[in-house]
Structures are given as structure tokens and as C-alpha cells.
Specification:
The protein has about 170 residues and is mostly helical. The protein has one domain (about 5-170). Helices cover about 40% and strands about 0% of the residues. The chain has helices at about 5-15, 25-30, 45-65, 90-110, 130-135, 160, and strands at about 115, 170. Strands 1-2 form a two-stranded antiparallel ribbon. About 30% of the residues are buried. The model is unreliable at about 135-174 (pLDDT under 50).
Length: about 170
């Protein structure tokens, strides 16, 4: 089967820019004072969302590539500790780690030697790499403007906030 079209589309979705701003653009100029400010009652700040996405993406990526990977405790291990401020160094480190893992996911998706239909041996319910990759890939707009808008994180429902986890899993066919 020629899966080049699926791979190309998956890479494009992960890159962003079609129905939403790409991750790099969204995270580029978030003002320091808005990073830890929740956009509304009961909603997470941009910092909390970035860290949640980064931690979840790292876990899914490493879990599928390394059978010895130990996932963090759920749900506490997928959210940062509460904080009133984030230094520029903390912000830059988190963005860099998130983008590096995202680049790795894109490279895996583009690799024709990876079987998108392979089972993930260590996963419960024997999901395939493709099943994991079809989890929501959309990214809510993360920008200075979004922190002031009426619908900053789409609906604010937990499933929308977590939809950016970029659950992509690929393993070399055995």
C-alpha cells in the first residue's frame, strides 16, 4: 500500500497553518505577563497548557519508541505545579523541548520505513500507531490575543484543552 499521501497529510497537520496557527507561530510572542494568567474562570493558563501538551507529547512519543519508558503519574504528572510567574528561561526551555519533540514526531510520520499500522506492543488494548496518530491534532490558538478573547481555548472543555497532546505513535515494523 502506498501511504505517502497519508504521511504527507499527517506531517502537514502536525506542522499547522491550515485551520489554525502552527505551534511555532502560536508560541513565538506570548507576552511574559500573560503566560500564567488564566484566560477565564476555570481555564488553564497558556503556561499550564504548554506544559501539559509538552509532557503528554513527550510521554506518548517516548512510550511508543522505548518499551522501558515509564509514564508519569496520571493526572498529576501531566500538569505543571501551580506558579504565579514563569521566567523567560523556563518559557524558552519548555517551548524548545516541545518543538523538538514535535519535530521528531513529524520525522517519524514522514519515515516510509515506519509502519503506521503496526501494533504498539506495550500499549493496552493493542492500539496501532495509526490509531494513536488520529487522536485530535488540532491546536487551540496560543497567543497574546487568545488570552483576551471570549473563546481563548475553544470551548474550555477538558477534551478540547487536551486535544493538543499530539498523540502520535510510530514504531518500526518488527
Amino acid at each position: 500500500m502506498d501511504d505517502s499521501v497519508i504521511r504527507k497529510n499527517l506531517v502537514e497537520l502536525l506542522k499547522g497553518g491550515h485551520g489554525h496557527v502552527g505551534a511555532r507561530g502560536a508560541l513565538k510572542n506570548v507576552a511574559a505577563q500573560l503566560r500564567t494568567a488564566p484566560p477565564g474562570p476555570g481555564l488553564h493558563s497558556v503556561w499550564e497548557e504548554l506544559e501539559h501538551i509538552r509532557l503528554a507529547q513527550e510521554d506518548i512519543l517516548r512510550y511508543t519508541l522505548d518499551p522501558g519508558w515509564r509514564s508519569p503519574d496520571f493526572p498529576s504528572g501531566y500538569w505543571p505545579a501551580a506558579t504565579e510567574s514563569v521566567t523567560d528561561e523556563q518559557w524558552s526551555a519548555s517551548v524548545s523541548r516541545f518543538l523538538a519533540d514535535l519535530d521528531e514526531v513529524r520525522q517519524l510520520a514522514a519515515d516510509p520505513d515506519r509502519d503506521l499500522t503496526a501494533l504498539i506492543p506495550t500499549a493496552r488494548d493493542a492500539p496501532t500507531c495509526a490509531r494513536s496518530s488520529w487522536s485530535p491534532i488540532t491546536t487551540p490558538t496560543i497567543s497574546d490575543r487568545s488570552c483576551k478573547s471570549a473563546r481563548p481555548w475553544r470551548t474550555g472543555r477538558a477534551e478540547d484543552q487536551r486535544g493538543v497532546a499530539l498523540e502520535i505513535a510510530f514504531r518500526r515494523a518488527e
